[in-house]
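Researcher: Please translate sequence to structure tokens.
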Amino acid sequence: MKAAVFHGSGQPLKVEEVPTPRPGAGEILVKVAACGVCHTDMHYIDHGVPTFKTPPMILGHEASGTVAGLGEGVTNWKEGDRVLLPAVLSCGTCRQCRIGRENICQHMRMFGNHVDGSYAEYVLAPAKDALVMPEDVPLIEGSIIADAISTPFHAVVNRGRVKPGDWVAVFGCGGVGINLVQVAAAVGASVIAIDLMPEKLEMAEKFGAQETINPNEVEKGRVDKAIKKMIGDGVDVAFEAIGNPKTIQAAYNTIRMGGTCVVVGYTHLPAEIPVSKLMFFEQSLIGSLGCRPVDYPRIIEMVRIGKIRVRELVTGRFDLDHINDAFDLLRNNDPKTLRSVIVP
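Model: Translation complete:
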């Protein structure tokens, strides 16, 4: 089969012919329909973040497709079934899995990190982890449910516990941030989108933002003051989707007394937070990672009925031979690009 192979940081992916994997016991072979292009992959390619599996390996963790082969003992799937593959695989037996927090499984494995991923024509997956994709959810655009939709859903619903009528601030309206906007709006919140690019703020409005703020256009860049002028108080929940210590601080500063700041963006750098304020105002600063398996059917159904939109989110399609062009587009931070997908 053809695959885009990762040989190490600082090198472009190389399109090669590699053996098509064979499903073992409890596994299915999936013919990949599409796989989303994610910043996580770029951390491996550009920034030296190590993968658990030593290269060479195949990246890609946001995939959909059809069942092409069954391993021994697999009875819940048949060839041709449409499936979504969650980005993270859980063991089901550790303490975190047993208490319903499979997204932080102590033995988690991730496609394109611990095991070969989906920048390829075929990928192996545990049969227990694959999810049914209804006929009326598009396979190609629906691939991004695996991460770009599910991660924001978990952050909004389970970590931020956003309720109808809440005021929510979203810092960063890229691939993850735009879906924080649309999921928060879908559950009934009033959303304030914050970004430096006017084009992304316009897109945020199309996906449900009630208000938008460009930090370059407010006095001294003080988004917190602009929000208080706008709604008379801080927001109930703020989400940081960039992974920058300064924007984490800025997001925290926008929450009201008793409010919550959820960090969704990744950074290895420390951020300073005033603990006295955190304590005295009974505020919360929490992290959010991935999504629990139990939530995927709900998300897929929200996509199916149109509560969450995916077609408009996919702004670029690339075949495997042009996968490095897709990453160049991501590096350039094109304001018109929300999510690109690789269609093998």
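Researcher: Any highlights?
Model: The mean pLDDT is 96.
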